[in-house]
Design brief:
mainly alpha; Cyclin A, domain 1; two-stranded antiparallel sheet; globular; disordered N terminus; G2/mitotic-specific cyclin-B2; Cyclin_N; Cyclin_A/B-like
Length: 409
């Protein structure tokens, strides 16, 4: 029987979650695994002379076992237009890899000039063969660090700000209806792969949550994205999230490497440019991870409970349905509640009812959906999150058996 008390070998999360003691991520090519997971291949890359038999390695778990998913993620585009952006904004990625922006992209000449200048600077930074300026800047402490959360006089203001922010940065629940070539299963495979990349480069959990938020918002604001572009969109989301959140984000070459060079540096820079314009450079977003940290600063828990709540919160990233219909704060409340209930049979505490305004009745529907996902986690084809939380660093919480039933009311 596993001891569910605080494990002396399991330290709680800090603001430098996955950064080594030196403060610099070290991912030399010499230490890279020989085999690399690849989600899809672009036909235009093949036209450039790239052969899958040269320099590409697939692990036995890397290729997508479901043949329908393999066809969906790897098949070539069926038209010359890959991305159509709504709301008076059309962005076209041609098969040649060149970006074409329609005249309707900018609302007026003044905004066009500003956008052009932003885009020019972005491209100058991102296309450099050296580490870009954002990576060379002085380390900045995250505004959402535990030290900030623990200042009780600011906790209510922080919570109010996050609750307002989560409404401004919510993706549209039905966005997949606008993307006939992309399915919920493909998105789950992509998120599972992003978890592996985050682990390999020892990035923070907040970076993962931000990347998924960017991914969903991008797809909410676009239509008819080709399946062959899905991995490129995913790695661009992670690139931007790492620049936003990490003290020392990986270099551009590293992100290209994660795709086994399926995409070029130029393609990734172009997609980053498109991404930032589609999201209007609004990269600050409230995530489930932020709310969960805040809740645990208000009502502290043991290391096992903390890590189990974090595990459940990450599991929710895998599924659009039903979790996209819930706000991040509600998912965080459900993860907290389910973790404390699983380990201690505890109920939603009065202190968090007063702080969040969420009652048990409001949390139960989301918690029930999260419980179903928790029970099915071991049998899912996507296992990256579960493998991550099998580590002693996270107190092996993914090995904890989910309660068979929830007796909450």
């Amino acid at each position: 029987m596993m001891n569910f008390g605080t494990n002396t070998h399991c330290s709680s999360y800090t603001s430098k979650e996955n950064i080594p003691a030196s403060g610099k991520v070290d991912a030399p090519h010499a230490q890279r695994p020989k085999q690399r997971r690849v989600l899809g291949v672009l036909s235009e890359n093949e036209q450039r002379g790239r052969s899958l038999s040269q320099g590409s390695h697939f692990s036995k778990h890397s290729s997508i076992s479901d043949s329908s998913q393999l066809v969906s993620l790897g098949s070539p585009p069926t038209s010359n237009f890959d991305v159509y952006v709504e709301e008076a904004c059309e962005v076209v990625l041609a098969a040649s890899g060149q970006e074409v922006v329609s005249d309707s992209f900018y609302l007026d000449s003044k905004s066009a000039g500003l956008q052009h200048e932003h885009s020019r600077l972005l491209l100058e930074l991102s296309s450099s063969s050296c580490q870009d300026a954002s990576m060379q800047s002085e380390p900045n402490k995250s505004l959402m660090s535990e030290e900030v959360f623990c200042v009780s006089e600011y906790a209510e203001d922080i919570h109010l700000h996050l609750r307002e922010s989560e409404m401004r940065t919510r993706p549209w629940a039905g966005y997949l209806l606008k993307h006939p070539e992309i399915t919920n299963g493909m998105r789950a495979v992509l998120v599972d792969w992003l978890v592996e990349v985050v682990q390999e480069y020892r990035l923070r959990s907040e970076t993962l949550h931000l990347a998924v938020n960017y991914l969903d918002r991008f797809l909410s604001s676009t239509a008819y994205v080709k399946r062959s572009k899905l991995q490129l969109i995913g790695i661009a989301a992670l690139l931007i999230a790492a620049k936003y959140e990490e003290i020392s984000p990986p270099e551009l070459n590293e992100f290209v490497y994660t795709t086994d060079n399926t995409y070029t540096k130029n393609q990734l820079v172009q997609m980053e440019h498109v991404f930032l314009n589609v999201l209007a450079f609004k990269m600050t977003a409230a995530t489930t991870n932020q709310f969960l940290r805040l809740f645990m600063s208000i009502r502290s828990v043991c290391a096992n409970t903390e890590n189990l709540a974090l595990y459940l919160a990450e599991l929710s990233l895998l599924e659009i349905n039903p979790f996209i219909q819930y706000t991040p704060s509600l998912v965080a409340a459900a993860a907290y509640y389910l973790a404390t209930y699983t380990l201690n049979k505890s109920l939603w505490p009065d202190s968090l009812i007063a702080f969040t305004g969420y009652t048990t009745t409001e949390i139960v529907p989301c918690m029930t959906d999260l419980h179903k996902l928790y029970i099915s986690a071991a049998s899912r084809p996507q296992q990256a999150i579960r493998e991550k939380y099998k580590s002693s660093k996270y107190c092996c919480v993914s090995l904890i058996t989910a309660p068979a039933v929830l007796d909450l009311l």
